[in-house]
Each structure stands twice: as C-alpha cells, then as structure tokens.
Amino acid sequence: MGQFLSFPIVEVGLLTFTRHIVYSVIIAVRITFYLKTNASFKMHFARKFSKSTGCFYNDCLLGSPMNKSIPLLELKNISKQFPGVLANDKVNLKVSPGEVHGLLGENGAGKTTLMKMLYGLYQPTGGEIFYKGQRVFLNTPKVALKLGIGMVHQHFKLVPTLTVAENIILGMKDSPNPFISLKKAKQAIAALGEKYGLKVEPSARVWTLSTGEKQRVEILKALYRNAELLILDEPTAVLTPLAAKALFETLDQLVKAGLTIIFITHKLKEIISVTDNVTVLRRGKVIDSRQTKNTTPQELAQLMVGREVVFQVGKEAKEPGEPILQMTDVEATNDKDLLALRGASLTIRSGEIVGLAGVSGNGQRELAEVLTGLRHANKGEILLQGEKVTNASVKELLKRKVAHIPEDRMSQALALPLTIAENIVLHSYRLPEFNQGPILDYPAINEHTAQLVKDFDVRTPGIDVPARQLSGGNLQKVILARELYPEPQLIVANQPTRGVDVGSCEYIRTKLIEARDRGAAVLLISEDLDEVLDVSDRIMVIYEGRLTQAPKNADHQTLGLMMAGEEVKHGQSA
Amino acid sequence: MDEIFTLSFLASVLSGAIRLGTPLLFPTLGEIICERGGVLNLGIEGIMLVGSLAGYMAAFYAGGDAWFGMMVGALAGGAFSLIHAFLTISLKANQVISGVMLVLLGIGITEFIGTATKMSQQILWTWKNNWGFKNFFKDLSIFFEDINLIPLSEFATWLQNVEFFGKAFFQHNVFVYIGWLVVPLVWVFLYKTRMGITITSVGESPETADTLGIRVNRIRYLCVFLGGMFAGLGGAYFPLAWVGNWQSMITAGRGWIAVALVIFAFWKPQRALLAAFLFGGMEALQINLQTKNVPIPSSFMHMLPYLSTIVVLVFLSGGRVLKRIGAPSALGVPYERGGG
Predict the structure, then answer these.
(1) Total domain count for chain B?
(2) Which distant-in-sequence residues (6+ apart) come within 8 Å of B12 by Cβ?
(3) Of B152, B125, B155, B150, whose CA–CA distance to B137 is shortest?
(4) A170 to B340: CB separation less than 8 angstroms, yes or no
(5) B329 to A160: CB separation less than 8 angstroms, yes or no
(6) CB A319 within 8 Å of CB A491
(7) Pick from A140, A142, A162: which is nearest to B200 by CB?
(8) Is B33 among the domain residues?
(9) b/e sequence A460-497, b meaning 16+ C-beta within 10 Å
(10) Contact residues on chain B for A83, CB-CB shorter than 8 A
(11) Which of A57, A202, A547, B39 is the most buried (most CB within 10 A)?
(12) What digits encode the pLDDT tens for the residues A250-264?
C-alpha cells in the first residue's frame, strides 16, 4: 500500500520543491544585483537625488552647451582603494574646455586608474566627479559615452575578427532596426577621416591593420559617438615616430574642432610639445598642476619622480676581458618562416655592454631568442666561453647562466596569475637552496623574494599577490631581479626599459651596468637611441638580419642612417 | 551485397541522414551561438534530455499536441541551461566542470521524473485491473501511450512522389524543413544583426564590449539561454517527431556529438548544416547496412564523429589555426573587469 500512496506524495513534493527553487533563485538574483557593487546603491541614491532636482539621472546633461567659464571636467578628492593598494589618493583635477591636458606620472602612479574611473570602468571609493558643472555618477562606460567622454585605451579595445565599420558601430543603439546597416558608419568614417586625417578602410578586418591604423579606429570610435572629451592613455607607447607625428597633427585638428583632450603619458617631450596644462601624479597623489609653457622638462621630471633625475647614467670605462659570447653567421627564420637573421655575427666580451640599435622588426627578437634557446638556428655557430651551445635547450643555457629579459614582459617573461615569489624563482626553482628534498622550500623562496623586492624597490602590496596586479615598471623590476640571480654570465636584454617610467628606467640601466662591472657580458637591444648611446660600451646596428659595427664616436645621425640601411664610411671607426 | 548499390538504398540512406541529422543540427546551432558568445556549454546532452522529457510531458498533457510540446521542450532546455549560465557567468565557475555536471544532472532528473511516472503508471495499471476504480486516473493511464507526431510535410506533395528525390528529400516531417530554414536565420542573426555582432564581440573581446557599454554577462546569459533552447528543441525532436514515446537516455549521446560538431563546423552555422547531415548520414548508413546484413557495430559509427573531430584537430592543430578557423578568443574565459 505504501507504493500506492507514494505517487501523489512524489508529485506534491515535486511541486513544492520546484516552487522553493524558483523562490530562492529569484531572491538570490535580486540580492546579487543589489549587492554586486556599492555602486548600485550609489546609483539608487543618484536617481533619487536627481529626481528631487527635477532632472532624471545624468540625462539633463545631454547636449547641454559647453560653458567656457566653468571647467568641462572637475574631479574633487577622488580616491580609489584596491585591496592592499591605494591607487588614487584625494585627486583633484580641473580640465577646461578646449584644452589639451597632460597627465604625467610614472608607471603605477595611478594615471590609468584615474581615467578608468572617469570612463566608468572603475568606481571611485571616495570623492565627486563634476562634468559641465553637474555632479555625475559614472557607473558604467555607457554613461560616460552618453555624456560625451571617449577613451583610447593603451591596449586597444577592438574586436579583431570584425571589420572597422562593425567595430565602430558596436554597442550603439541609434536605430530600432535590429539589422546593422554599415552605410551610415562608412560615410561617417570617410568624412571624419577626411577632416582629421584618420584614414582607414572601413571594410577591412581589424586584425589586418597596423598599430597606427588600429589607433585611428579607436579615435574614430570615440568621434562617431560624438565625444567631447577624449582621453588618450599612453597613445604613443606603441607607435613609430612617424605615426606619432601623424597622431599629434590629428590631435591639433581635434582641438581646433572644439574637443577637449586628456593626454596620459610618461614621456616628457610629448607633454612639452602637445599639452596646454599638465598635472603630475606621483604614487596616486596630485603633486602639482601647472601651465606647460611655464615649466621645463627637468622640473617636470623632478616632480614626477620626486628627486633630481640623472639623464646620463654614470659609468666608468672598463677594459673588457675574455670573450663570453661568440656568434658566427647565424641564420634563423621568424614566425612566418621568413629569413629574419641572415648571417649575423657578434662577439661580446666579459665586462662589456654591446648596444644593438635598429628599427624594430629587423631581427632583434629572433636574435634574442636564438641566443636564449627559444628559437632554432638553421645555420651558424654560437659559442659560450668557447663551448658550442648552438641550439642548446633553455635548461642547458640557464645552467650556463644566460639571462634573458624578453621584449614582451606580459606573455614571455612572467606568469601573471602566479605570485611575485613564484615568478621570482621561475627559472631558479631547481636550485638546491629553494628545495627541501622533492618539495619546494617556500620559506626560503619567500625570504629570497622579500630581499629582492626590497633591493630592487618593487612597489607591491605583498610578495604573495598575483603578478598581474603590478604595474609595468614594477613588473620589469621583478623580471630584472629574477634574471640577475644567480649572477649571470651573459645577459640578453631586449627592450628592458620600453614603457617604463623615468625612475625605473634609470634604475634598470644602473643595474645592467653593475652586472657588467661584475664581469657579465651584456647585449642590450633597444630602439631608444639615447639608451644605446648612454649605456653601451660598443654599438652594433641591426638591419634586415645583419649586424654592423657602428663607429666608435657615432652620434644619433650616423646611427639613424645605419638603421635605415645606409652604408656609413668608417672614417675613424675602431 | 548487390542491394547496397541501388538507387533505393541510397535514397533511404539520404532520407535517414536528414531524419537523423536534424536532432544534431539544432543543438549544434545552439552550441555555436553559445560558444560565439564565449561560453563553452558541454551540458548539451543533459539539456537535450530535459528538453525531450519536458516536451513529451507537455505534449501529452496538451492532448497530444506535439507543437506545444516542442515549445515547452525549447523553454525547458533554455531554463535548464540557465543553471550553467548562473554557475559560469555569475559565479565564474569552471565551464567544463559545470557543463559535465549539467549532463549528469540532466540524466538524473529525467531518469527520476521519467521513471517515477513510469512506475506509478504500472501501479495504476495494477490498481485498475485488480481493484476497479476504472477511469479514476484516466488521464494518467495513457501517459506512456504514443502522442501524435509532428506531421509529415504537406509542402509540394507532388515532389514526394518523384523517383529517388521524393523519398530522399521530401518525405519528412515539418520539423526537418524548419531546421533547413533556421540555418540561414541563425546566419543572418549572427552576422547581420546588431545583436549578432554584439555576441561576436563578447566572445572575441569582452573588454572591448565592456568599454562600449555592452553588458557582457547579460549577453552571455542570452547566448546560453538561446543555446539551451536550441538544444531543448533538438531533444524534443526525439519523442515528438521521431519515436512517439519517451524512454530513458533517449538522446543516446547525441548531445556530445553536437559539441564535437561545433569544432567540425568551424563555429559557422552554414557548416553546421553540412556537419549535422554528414554525421546523420553515417548513422543512417550504419542502420541501413545492418538491415542488409552488413554488420558494422553501431558503437563504431558512434565513435566516428569524435574520431573525425580528432582528425580535424590534428590537421588544424595549434592555437593560431584554431583562431583562424573561427574559435572565439574568449571561449571558456569568464569575464571580470581587470584590476579590482
């Protein structure tokens, strides 16, 4: 009989069960949406607040005319607290309509965080934002876009598989028609391109574009959304000098057309040549804000790093010793299977820094990878202290104390989800001092890391945070700290100071010179001619996979000519 | 053996390919939408099972209306897949684990509800025949009787009688032709509508979508729901357009085949049609060969989709190639605004 009764009970039980599930899901969803950020609370209050002033949320600002007398944008006491790091500390900033406002600061000074709050990607933990004199609550980029704030990110935000036109209209709801029509977008792209010198082919897929073109698409994206305030986050970091020049011309025209621009950079030259006013950030705080014409690069540099910056790194002349690296007639191909190194020969002796100048893409990366065992050499011979190491494994080369500072620090040099400590021993964890039998000796690793973090002045909330939380300059210091332990014989440094602020830059160069003074052989690959000239004992130029010795007293002009493939008469060459 | 090389044999294989390919086509399309939005949903098999039982029960209670059943099957599939959406999008759980869990849950739920009802039906049968109370549970007593199948197409009846082509292509139920129509619709949806490129952007580069004011997680929920609806339809096809009855594990692993077919179809709806009918054809061939006493074990044929997927992946190995054939860059990666 039990079985007879069971059926209705099963059914009733199921119904109740289902009802409970539905209720709890509804409650969970409501709670999640309410508690997700404290911003939703703020938004809630903002709505109420604006209602009382007779104006719904931020909408009253749309299309309101620019008033020259009040600042377009004003930040009052903006703070941003990340777990363990205060990224912005009571920042005040005023941007008047029609100006180019420079935001200067070292890596990790909080420039990008500040701008992300302005674009609605982060919510400030304190302070107020005023736009056209009205308080605004920027809780999503949608609101920022609606108000006319556009941003060109340092790492482009584009969908590579879509076309230029599709990227530009992405996310816009300008018509109720669910089907996309690219005609209007294409016309606008052509018109804007004509007006501001932003030429791109609207039907090209974004992944086929060059970096400069991608940046143009980003600017077009903002302009197409009628941006009045354009934020450019380190726009020249990825550009060739020529493309940067074109960008500056475009910016000129944009300002003439009435746009206001916030220009984030750590390059002093750009601040001087582009901006009207400049605000300097250091460690999350505004140090000073002044008119560009009343200041000098030296003064700005001092404000930025908090002390006098030595632009020339001091180093003593040193007589190089035994040859450490001897490379003869090496050939290697690049990722597209095209010949990248065509018979490259190079000798570096102990206690010598060889600077390798060249326009990027002439085989620098392949050279660094061949030397460090990451790329196969098809021909030629590499000797390390007289022993043949051609196409030796990375492990073998690590054993022979070859250090590598790769060009791409995010993907090649670090494991971003791992902690600082784990990254520090990434290449040396096999050493007996970091092991207890088969088990990693974490206390020893942590102690070692703490020491290096202190020695190299890495600014981090702790040694057990994931590497991805650190800024570029600090990551580079982590890499340097790792590679200089245990003391290497050969250091291959590929663009060690690219995208790094002045303070860290100087520090990294000093460390390389220290390593050389200890007797290491250093290959410094750099596109920054000042760096090559300052740091190197000897300069080589790479052009289309071949290395040429530069004259001993070569200057910018000579090197520039050699980098462009011109034959230079070795008048007084060594 | 001679019987195999005849036109009528070919026609019945082709006809089978279409009949057996349709329940692969729908979940494959669904998974394509889902994966293009950046969410890997391995739970297709479970969703199909839920769709099949829900569809069948709904059709039964609606007095044998298979169309109503299809609708409910789709909705149930969508609703069931929201579990996956909640776990992987809101809670950022591992998508592979969540998907496999969904399959097991789907099997469990359908076994439980299906078997419980089946058992109670046996009890009712005993009750009715031994102690009377006839018509007391009348409605329930016919629960596991067949319902009206989705009808055969009445479109162009003259074509059905055409030699060879009629049998191969035009003697199917209406739902098969709906499948043919849905493929171009999905293509238009994915490539030519605002929502379609939004989905692509969310699957390729969620950060970009976020900076343009697109609610990444909301779009992903939608993708998973749509994918679940298609899978539910695929599941409901079995009892409502094919078998006419529900039994446990009715989908027989076809959900897994659909997941493999997405790679085979390079994430493109037009190729999904080809892929689904190709693998439907393999199964049809095996069935037809068995009736002609050519013994090829069905398990061998079931292995083929995976084997061919492996072969495809071997030839197109490497992340760069996968990218080129259309694998969404952010597939399987939960989205979180970086830095804090």
Answers:
(1) 1
(2) B167, B168, B284, B288
(3) B125
(4) no
(5) yes
(6) no
(7) A162
(8) yes
(9) beebebebebbbbbbbbbbbbbbbbbeebbbbbbbbbb
(10) 340
(11) B39
(12) 999 999 998 999 999
Taking CA atoms, A155 is separated from A151, A270, A303, in Å, by: 11, 19, 27
A77: left (phi over 0), alpha (psi -120 to 50) or beta: left
CA B265 to chain centroid: 15
- Distance between A369 CA and the closest CA of chain B, angstroms: 20
B157 found inside a domain: no
ipTM: 0.80
Residues of A in contact with B125 (CB under 8 A): none
Question: How many Å apart are CA A70 and CA A133, to the nearest integer?
Answer: 7
Nearest CA in chain B to A120: B211
What's at A477, amino acid-wise?
K
pLDDT-based confidence at A554, cuts 50/70/90?
confident
- Quote helix, strand, coil % in chain B, to nearest 5: 75, 0, 25
- pLDDT at position A462 is 86
For the domain that residue B9 is a member of, what is the CATH number? 1.10.3470
Residue B315 lies in a domain: yes
**Chain B residue with Cα closest to A163:** B197
pLDDT at A48 over 60: no
- What is the pairing mode between strands A521-526 and A546-549? unpaired
Closest CA to B258 of B284, B232, B285, B240: B232
Among A119, A159, A169, the residue with its CB nearest the CB of B208 is: A159
Q: What is the bridge-based pairing of β-strands A126-131 and A134-136?
A: antiparallel
* Per-residue pLDDT tens over the stretch B188-215: 999 999 999 999 999 999 999 998 989 9
Q: Which domain holds residue B294?
A: 2-134+173-325
Across the interface, whether the CB atoms of A82 and B201 are under 8 A apart is answered no
Q: Using one digit for the tens of pLDDT, what is the confidence trace for A344-359?
A: 999 999 999 999 988 7
Q: Which residues of B142-165 are buried (b: 16+ CB within 10 A; e: fewer)?
A: ebbeebebbeebeeeeeebeeeee
- The answer to whether B287 and B296 have CB atoms below 8 angstroms apart is no
Extract the tokens encoding B134: 């006839």
**Can you read off the two tokens belonging to residue A9?**
């009970």
Quote the CA–CA distance of B224 and A213 in Å, as a whole number. Answer: 35
In terms of Cα–Cα distance, which of B191, B174, B176, B206 is closest to B276?
Answer: B176
User: For residue A144, what are the contacts with CB-CB under 8 A and spacing of at least 6?
Assistant: A118, A119, A120, A138, A151
Sort residue B164 into left (φ over 0), alpha (ψ -120 to 50) or beta: left
How far does the CA of residue A42 sit from the closest CA of chain B (Å)? 18
pLDDT of B137 strictly over 80: no
Which of A7, A10, A141 shows the shortest C-beta gap to B213?
A: A141
Residues A154-163 pLDDT 10s? 888 999 889 9
Q: CB distance B208–A157 less than 8 Å?
A: yes
**Nearest CA-CA partner of A550 in A535, A534, A533, A531:** A533
Q: What is the pLDDT of residues A510-548, one digit of tens each?
A: 889 999 999 999 999 987 777 888 889 999 999 888 899
In a domain, B43, yes or no: yes
| Residue type, position B73, single letter | G
Q: Which chain A residues contact residue B122 at CB under 8 A?
A: none
Chain A residues in contact with B194 (beta carbon < 8 A): 169, 173, 178-180
CA-wise closest residue to A565 among A418, A359, A261 = A359
Distance CA A458, CA A450 (A): 10
Task: Quote the tokens at residue A106.
Answer: 């070292």
Distance from CA of A7 to the nearest CA of B (A): 6
Please give the helix or strand (H or E) that residue A52 lies within, else none: helix A38-52
Nearest CB to A171; choose among B116, B207, B209: B209
Question: How close, in Å, is residue B1 to chain A by CA atoms?
Answer: 50
Query: Which pTM does this prediction carry?
Result: 0.71
